[in-house]
Amino acid sequence: MINQVVKLVAPRRMELFFKEESIDDECVVVRPKYLSICAADQRYYTGNRAKEVLDKKLPLALIHEAVGEVLFDKKGEFKSGDRVVMIPNTPLENDNIIKENYLRSSKFRSSSSDGFLQNLVLMRRDRIIKIGDIDFEISALLEPISVCVNAIEEFLKSAHERRDVIGVWGCGSIGYLTTLLLKKYLPESKIIIFGTNEEKMNYFSFADEQLMTNSVPENLKVDHAFECVGGPKSEIAIKQIIDHINPQGTISLLGVSENPISIETRMVLEKGIKLIGDSRSGYDDFYKAVEFMQDKKMQDYVENIVVDVVEVNSINDIYKAFDSDLNNNFKTVMKWEL
Amino acid sequence: MIYGGILAGGKGTRMGRTEMPKQFLNLGNRPMIIHTIEQFLISNKIDKVIVATNENWRSYTEDIINKYYPENDKIVIINGGTTRNETIANICDFAEKNSPGEENVVVTHDAVRPFITQRIINDNIDAILEEGIDAVDTVMPAFDTIVEAKEGEIISNIPIRDYMYQGQTPQTFRTNEFIENYNSLTEDEKGILSDAIKIYVLKNKKAKIVRGETFNMKVTTMYDLKLANAIVNMQGEDKND
To answer: If both were cysteines, with which of A110, A129, A283, A324 could A115 make a disulfide (CB 3.0 to 4.6 Å apart)?
Structure first.
């Protein structure tokens, strides 16, 4: 079979490539249907990665957040028409201790292997999960939801048991989904969202309190915190978290920063703060994300951050979707018709 | 039922010195026809794929299909005819016998257009199922001006380019209607008509166009095959895979 793959060849320039694919027993042929754009894709698309990184990785098919429809499975385990979420992480070894998304040998789509901007994707059968009754369009966001699941699961494993007040810094999509899931995991805890954009903060109706970062009362304390800011601004956020966190609190770091940022380790030491790095997700996280999203109420909340849906019939439409995503508060989803 | 009809009746006479019909030559690491059949095989809208092949190459066709898809009951191989339309008529006959009394649709496609996509197949099926549509043709807008010279020397007409399209495949229709229309042609007409959709146009039926792709090209010459192989090999992704 000859497949069509849309690859980024240079910032803001994508081209169609043709790839010979052979269908074997271990793979399932999936046609992508809804794909959403991540900040990581935008960094490649806009050329906000170091030149050496772009030189090394391009041409590369972007997008690691996608759901699709099963077309063909030689083994018949999946039925034609099954709606599935595609897991972008592909582990190449088994490890009983280290999670698949942290194994250095794992491949990750739209980073170390081609992403989902393809007409057909040949998925390893252990890399797809049926999504059940979740609205197809909204389910494009299962990947970022699973990333938040990974972060919260890791937090629950290592943070101490006093979880009366938890702060989430960052009012973007990851902050939104983390806050939403924390309310689900820890309904008794008070979840406070800290942000800088009032318009975006208004979306967080399920948070117990919304606070602008420039008007946080000095005596306000949180037991634990999630940093979902990323970029150079994460430095200020982490500083504020350290100021307001109680001793021996845990800070979960989810925001990606292209350049190194500085952290006041003196106070980390003095307060006995635990830092957890969170990145990506694996099969179990996706499985839980799919379970959470069976709840119609959760779907409604997630739908609120799908700001735009762009139908893609050409490469120009992909550019339109990326530009739309750059100019809105949350997420743009592509409806794949190429 | 919805059938895929793969037209693999070509004898390979146009392919330079190659004696093997072009659909059996490798594109990448597999015969071109396998790439083409696979797109119909994986389609969740196609119930059965009928491969119509030249009688002399039937065993060969069976061998290679069995090699890649042993005991696959979605694929059947039948003999083609002496002309393109006769081959299509054979496909339609098979479909009518296979699922008599049903509304049978066939999406016919050249075995030598291996770059076919799911979108094109789906658009063909969606269009034929629209009310009042008798046939569907896959086309691309003509980028070059079309020049008509009936006697081969002096220009007789230059049609307005905006109205001109270049025909590709798939071409899609209902199998009983194709047989009916085809049988109503005289032997002379059958000889001249090289295009299935033209039958519908001559009979004042409604034939709709759907968008093809520039890359949905017909691999007819050695040059085409070289080009097709170059396109498939041009990956630039080895760094990441």
So the answer is: A110
- In chain A, which residue's Cα lies nearest the Cα of B43? A71
- A23 closest CB neighbour out of B38, B119, B235: B38
Residues A125 and A153 grouped into a single domain: no
Residue among B35, B44, B119 whose CB faces A71 most closely: B44
Q: Tell me if A206 is assigned to some domain.
A: yes
Are residues A6 and A112 located together in one domain of the fold?
A: yes
Task: For residue A241, give how far its alpha carbon lies from the nearest alpha carbon of chain B (Å).
Answer: 37
As for how many domains chain A has, the answer is 2
* Mean pLDDT, chain A, whole residue set: 96
When scoring A2, A17, A56, A70 by the number of chain B Cβ atoms within 10 A, the one with the most, hence best to mutate, is: A2
- Residue A90, pLDDT > 90, answer yes
Neighboring chain A residues of B38 at a CB cutoff of 8 Å: 1, 23
Interface contact A17-B234, CB threshold 8 A = yes
Residue pLDDT, tens place only, B41-72: 999 999 999 999 999 999 999 999 999 998 88
Give the number of domains in chain B.
Answer: 1
The beta-carbon neighbor of A20 closest among B29, B42, B215 is B29
Residue range of the domain that includes B101: 2-138+164-233
List B49's β-bridge partners, or say none.
B4, B75
Q: What is the DSSP string of A21-64?
A: ----TTEEEEEEEEEE--HHHHHHHTT-S-HHHHHHH-SB----
Q: Could you report the predicted ipTM of this complex, rounded to two decimals? A: 0.88
A15 touches chain B (CB under 8 A): no
Tell me if A300 is assigned to some domain: no
Instruction: Establish if A98 belongs to a structural domain.
Output: yes
Write down the residue that tokens 């979108």 correspond to: B119
Q: Provide the pLDDT for residue A285.
A: 98
Burial A185-223 (b: 16+ CB within 10 A, else e): bbeebebbbbbbeeebbebbebbeebbebeeeeeeeebb
Indicate if the pLDDT at residue B239 is higher than 60.
Answer: no
On whether both A22 and A75 belong to a single domain, the answer is yes
Query: Domain with B229 in it: what CATH number?
Result: 3.90.550.10
- Interface contact A197, partner B, CB < 8 A: no
pLDDT at A314 over 90: yes
